[in-house]
């Protein structure tokens, strides 16, 4: 697979990525009751974004996350290693990422689970994190950004 466009090498791409990154910086200021890396990894898996899957796995490992838990993110429903708050966040991530599949957005049941563990600020941040990773995934998938060479903290 050959990368189609290096977003950073174009004036428009550089501006776009700078502004998208600013959204990420704002979201990083909010403390959620779950690691955002789990959410970022799951959305990236769903969207088939190799670059982001590689990045968020490596960043999670660098932050001290257990590789067993990361390995089980794709099968979180059957895994016993996630908290109830993490399960709510992963369900939310899947429903918001697959929004067209449900024709109704995030279900009332999933929202109820999220609200048990996330206050208004945290639920807003969770929504933003999922929306943002979907933007990054789409940029990287569209441009065929290759995976495997990311180093933790590279960006």
From TrEMBL:
Q: Which residues form a coiled coil?
A: none
Pfam families, per database record? CMD
UniProt xrefs under InterPro entries: AhpD-like (IPR029032), AhpD_core (IPR004675), CMD-like (IPR003779)
Domain Carboxymuconolactone decarboxylase-like: start-end pairs: 36-95
Q: Which domain of life is it from?
A: Bacteria
Name any one GO molecular function: peroxiredoxin activity
Matching entries from NCBIfam families are given as: ahpD_dom
Protein name stated in the entry: Carboxymuconolactone decarboxylase family protein
State the species of origin: Nocardia stercoris
């Amino acid at each position: 697979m050959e990368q189609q466009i290096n977003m950073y090498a174009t004036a428009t791409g550089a501006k776009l990525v700078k502004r998208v990154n600013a959204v990420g910086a704002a979201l990083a200021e909010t403390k959620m009751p779950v690691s955002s890396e789990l959410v970022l990894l799951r959305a990236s898996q769903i969207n088939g974004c190799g670059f982001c899957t590689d990045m968020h796995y490596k960043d999670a490992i660098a932050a001290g996350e257990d590789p067993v838990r990361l390995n089980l993110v794709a099968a979180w429903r059957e895994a016993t290693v996630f908290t109830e708050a993490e399960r709510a966040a992963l369900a939310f991530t899947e429903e918001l990422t697959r929004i067209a599949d449900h024709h109704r957005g995030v279900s009332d049941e999933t929202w109820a689970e999220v609200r048990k563990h996330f206050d208004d600020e945290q639920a807003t941040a969770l929504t933003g994190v999922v929306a943002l990773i979907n933007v990054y995934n789409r940029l990287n998938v569209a441009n065929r950004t290759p995976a495997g060479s990311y180093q933790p903290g590279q960006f």
